[in-house]
Amino acid sequence: MKIIEVQDYQQMSRRAAEYIIKKVVQNPSINLGLATGGTPIGTYKCLIEDHQKSGTSYQKVTTFNLDEYIGLSGDNENSYRYFMDNQLFNYININKANTNVPSGIAADFQEECKRYEDLITKHGGIDLQILGIGSNGHIGFNEPGTSFSSKTHIVELEESTIQANARYFNRIEEVPTKAITMGISTIMKSKEILLLVSGEEKREALARLLDGEIIHESFPASVLKNHPCVTIIADKVAIADLKVQC
Ligand code: PGA
Questions:
Q1: Which of 42, 57, 102, 186 could form a disulfide with 182 if both were Cys (CB 3.0 to 4.6 A apart)?
Q2: Residue 39: count of CB within 10 angstroms of its CB
Q3: Can you give the residue range of the structural domain that contains 139?
Q4: Any idea what the CATH number is for the domain that residue 204 is in?
Q5: From its phi and psi, is residue 124 left (phi > 0), alpha (psi between -120 and 50) or beta?
Q6: Which sign does the torsion angle of CA 95, 98, 104, 108 carry?
Q7: Is it the case that residue 244 has pLDDT exceeding 70?
Q8: Model pLDDT, residue 70
Q9: What is the whole-number distance in angstroms between the Cα of residue 12 and the centre of ligand 1?
Q10: What is the tens place of the pLDDT at every residue in 149-183?
Q11: In DSSP terms, which residues pair with 180 in a beta bridge?
Q12: Is the beta carbon of 42 within 6 A of some atom in ligand 1?
């Protein structure tokens, strides 16, 4: 894993956007894996600014999001489809038909999981996956204990995840308790992974990832150590006094 230490959230966002833009320019038909949450918002803002200033084109890009809440349709403002449309897709020249988010309102979720997994495979897999990390070490919505061989599946969210995400809802009771997420093996099949880490509340998770803890399903992000091409962009507050090679 390569680690890039940056000053703060703003710099993390800029570095991440530069990284993504370079890949999109190199491969205009790239398959991007995208994430939601507070971490990538600044990155998406930088992508939009660049698109407006420099005209980087997303016309041929295909995207696959990591996850979606069960029970929320795309027009619900807490859904991840809504998030992606409003934080990124509506402001770049991407073809919406090429943006994929698992459905939170499918009639048959087993079928939806299979459809999503097959769709990624049919497109030749994800070239670059953007990831955040949960304070409990989750990646996507793969909570501790998730099998490393999991494909797209339905999960029960941990209490800590529900609490962390409650800030986006009016009341904690409104936070869905289930989600559909790419599995760990789905994420690990990505050719390249860019993990973004910012803030004090991620310090412990980053320390567990970097401090040589064994690779174990009790800490999902540890699986990334088995991936041949992971870059972490982390800010100073998250890195704290960890000894990292930049
Ligand atoms: P956050 O979530 O970006 O909102 O901190 C990250 C995650 O839970 O994966």
A1: 186
A2: 22
A3: 2-239
A4: 3.40.50.1360
A5: left
A6: positive
A7: no
A8: 98
A9: 14
A10: 999 999 999 999 999 999 999 999 999 999 999 99
A11: 68, 154
A12: no
